[in-house]
Amino acid sequence: MSNTEQSPEGQSTAGDTSPTSLEERYSVVVGRFVQGVELVAATVFAALFAIGVGDLMLQILEAVQSGEITDPLVVIGFIDTGLLLLIIVEVYQTVLAYVEEDETRRIVRLVIYTGVIAMVRKAIIFRTGEYASTTDALFAAGSYAIIIFALVSLLFAEQNVGGNAGLLSEE
Fold first, then answer.
1. Domain membership flag for residue 95
2. HSE toward the beta carbon, residue 66, CA cutoff 13 A
3. Between 105 and 74, whose confidence is greater?
4. What is the DSSP letter of 130?
5. Per-residue pLDDT tens over the stretch 71-97
6. What residues make up the domain containing 145?
7. Buried-state track 42-75, b at ≥16 Cβ within 10 A, e below 16
8. Which of 15, 31, 41, 89 has a CA positioned 20 to 30 A from the CA of residue 48?
9. Quick check: 6 and 12 in contact, CB under 8 A?
10. Is the pLDDT reported for residue 19 higher than 70?
């Protein structure tokens, strides 16, 4: 027996929170499906992070044993991998924020953090020798600088905008 009561006109009373129309029921089912897929995605990112941490530890151990740990390019490779793992963590946290239906501000902040980490990673592993010409390398470096400046500006703006300003807050 349901805890909802019908009014004399046939409408449900205020205690009824279940969807009544086909569209509402469909929307609830699809919403639960999407939330389930988001949880699967979060699980995949958590597993990738765990695998990545294990792999990084093995790489460091092998580098120590072989003596390659003193090679700056090997160390930069470890930093690159570590930053990639941080990107995975940020994406995981972003997916969880969607699942938990966090406020838009938190989600935007997580996306900005992910972008900053990704661009710092690109700057750290940047090598001019990987480009066909020095002009190409200069354009790439300039592009990275512009993107990093834009992301840091966004982060600064997000942190300094009051919750009531409405720029990045929930409506």
1. yes
2. 10
3. 74
4. G
5. 998 999 999 999 999 999 988 998 888
6. 103-171
7. beebeebbeebeeebeeebeebeeeeeeeeeeee
8. 31
9. yes
10. no
